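Supplementary notes (optional reading)

For those who missed the lab, this is the record we used. Protein: Gluconate transporter. Length: 424 residues.
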Amino acid sequence: MQAAWSPHDTRLILACAASLGVIVTLIGWLRVVPFLAILLGDIGLIIALGALLGGLVTESGAAARIVDAVVRDTRPGLLPWLVALAAMVIGLPLFFEVGLVIMIPVIFALAARAGLPVLRIAVPALAGLTTLHALVPPHPGPLIAIAALHADLGRTLGFGLLIAIPAAILAGPVYGNALAHHVVIGPMPIEPAPVAVPRRSLALSIAVILLPVALMLCRTLAKLGLLPVPVARTLDVVGEPVVALTLSVTFALVTLGWGMRNSGLGRVRAGETMRDSLAPIAVLLLTIGAGGGFKQVLVIAGISRTVAGIAAGTHMPVLVLAWLVAVLLRQATGSATVATTTTAGLLAPLLPGLHMSPDHVALLVLAIGAGSVFFCHVNDAGFWMVREFFALRLRQTLLVWSVLQTIVSVVGLAGASLLWWLTG
């Protein structure tokens, strides 16, 4: 039987709300960096490997080669759809910020070439990038929730891709088409440099980006019991996230970095690229650690029991509860990573009593990821990146970025709920 609501629960909720209020004030008003305001095991290693892979893919021109292949000789009406596809492919191994920097010159060049409003191209690109960031490992948010809830990575990856496709379509080409009629933006503040596409094999470029995803999916295939034991064991090892990303970085270094017949970056430049790729993730890793510390304070204070009491009292489905907690934390902290880390940590102690199937645990991860991107506003770094890159006013940025992410969040919850019902 669920214990009655106590004065301690009330004080705990009020203290939690007060602490979140302090965080909002520090980040949103006083502009304190999230790490200081909130004051790593395999996750840190995975993020570092992902940064190395993203750096090699970007600097070598493989990312630009894929974008060029997708959009070349395309009718203007199809460009928003293909840009969304290209952004999703590019976004598989890259952080949102890196993917956005890659896509910016492409967005403006394509809009000018096709004679389309910039937002018809920009919104699909933003949707493709942010959907992958929220719902598909090996991005930090999903990986953190997977680790905390002991979810199966392959299942989460497969379900995440299924949900990401309709989310990117509705938040991208569909919303972008409607928005372009109401929001008109001026020329780019800084003239974009021409999009250079090195002489790079398209097949190789795609292979490098998709290799870690393929290896991780192999691990799930190995666990189905349909393969010979030696093969299954081998796939299980190579599909482990750290191993899969290590192999992928090595493959990218050999093919895109060193290359053959002087087609690669060269050993010196490849080494510099990898070193430079690690610097931007320092703040991310500190933020993840701080978010974990904040989560632990709440857990020690008994917030998990209180959350369980709220869930039992309202009879709220656990999937909706996970999404809602992530929404509230994202509004408070401005960080999807902190919202995901804290929500997953709060819900982890509840899972043994819920007797959830592996499919449902994977979908719970995705519900948290969806909630972590709901209506991102002025305390979100991505909000200001979008505003500055596209020279938007504050209201325009809310329409372009905040509403776009809300669409991704709601579709993500709806998709997870549908798959929850279908998987029984």
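If you only remember one thing from this example: Residues 189-197 have pLDDT under 50 and may be disordered.
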